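task queued by scheduler; priority normal; single chain, no ligands, no partner chains; default sampling; output format set to C-alpha cells
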Amino acid sequence: MLSSMTGFGRATCEIKNKKITIEIKSLNSAKLDLSSRVPSYYREKEIDLRRIVAKELERGKIDVSLFVENVGNESALQINPSVMAAYVKQLKAAADEAGFPIPADYDWLTVLLRLPDVNRAEQNELEDEEWQLILETLNKAIQIVKDYRRKEGETLEAIFTEKLNNISALILDVEPFEAERTEAQRQRILERFNSLGINFDINRLEQEMIYYIEKLDINEEKNRLRDNLAHFSNSMNEEKNCNGKHLGFVAQEIGREINTLGSKCNHSEIQKVVTKMKDELEQIKEQVLNTL
C-alpha cells in the first residue's frame, strides 16, 4: 500500500504543572530532511528525538517541535525577560527590513512564549518519568502522521490507477491506425520508385519493403509499455513502506517506451494518441514525487 510524504500529527501530555505538546509536520522531499525545535531544557534529548522520528518516518521534509506551557499555579519554568526582549528586537528589525508592518494588536506574548529559551527550567536534570511520558507522546504524534500519510496514500493510489488505465486505453486507440500506417508507408515507397523512372524488380522491392516496415513495427513497444504499466500497478500493492523511488524508476521506463513508440510510428493520428499518453504520464510523475 502507498503512503504519502505529506502528514501532520500533534499529541499532548501533562506532568506536574506542565503541558507538553509535540507537533510533527511532513512534506515531500527527495530524501530525509529533518529539523527540530525544542526548549533548551530538553536539548540533551534532542538527538534521541530526531533518531526516533527519522527511523519511523523515513523520508520527507520533516519539522518536529516540542512546546511547554505552564498549567499550574506554580511554574517549574520561569520567563527569561532578556531573551524575550532580544526576540522582540530581532522580530521588529526583520519586519522593518522586509517591509511588513506589525499590527498594533499583535499577540506578542503567545508567540514569544513558544520560542526557544524564553522559558527556563528550575530543575537541573530531566526526570525519567517526564522523559518516558515525552517518548509516549512523541510516538502518538508519529502514529498520527503515519495514519495521515496512509490516508493521503489512498488518494495517490486512486490517481495512479486512473492514469494507468487511461494509458492502457490509449494503447488500444493506436491499433486502428496501424494497418493504415503500414499501407501508407508501402504506397509512399512505391510512388517514390515510380517517380524515379527506372526499371526495378517489383518482387525484390516488396521483399525489401517488408523488411523495412517490420523495423517500424511498434508491437514490441506496446507490449513493453503494457508490462511496465502492470509493474507499476503491482508495485503499489507491495507490502513495503518506502516505494516512491521505485515507482519513479518505473515511470521513467514507461516514458521511454512511449517516446520510442512516438518516434517509430510516423503517423499523425498515432502521434496525437502518444501526446495524450505523455500527458497522463506527466501527471503520474508529479504525484510520484510525493510518494513515500
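post-processing summary
- The CA atoms of residues 163 and 280 lie 6 Å apart.
- Helices lie at 46-57, 81-98, 108-112, 128-196, 202-215, 219-236, 244-265, 268-288.
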